[in-house]
Design goal:
This protein is α+β, with helices and mostly antiparallel strands. It is 25% helix and 46% strand. The chain is built from one helix and four strands, in the order E-E-H-E-E. A four-stranded antiparallel beta sheet has the order 1-2-4-3, with no helix packed on it. The longest helix is centred in the middle third of the chain and has 18 residues.
Length: 71
């Protein structure tokens, strides 16, 4: 299951996404890393105040935290 949450607090938006994964499943690491780099570049182009993007991977759970400030 994927858990997606979006909170709007004043002049910022906070988005989190969590999903469990199978660590035995083989994945293409090169394309995964490239996707994260492209997302960061696009966010910097769209938002004048640099957004906070954190990606973590612990205990078979992939988590993404994104905070965008508008002020």
């Amino acid at each position: 299951a994927i858990d997606i949450r979006i909170n709007i607090e004043g002049d910022k938006t906070i988005m989190t996404c969590e999903n469990k994964y199978d660590p035995t499943r083989q994945q293409n690491v090169e394309s995964h890393c490239l996707g994260n780099v492209l997302i960061e570049k696009r966010l910097r182009l769209i938002y004048p105040v640099r957004p906070t993007l954190t990606v973590s991977n612990h205990n078979n759970v992939f988590k993404v935290y994104l905070e965008i400030n508008y002020g």
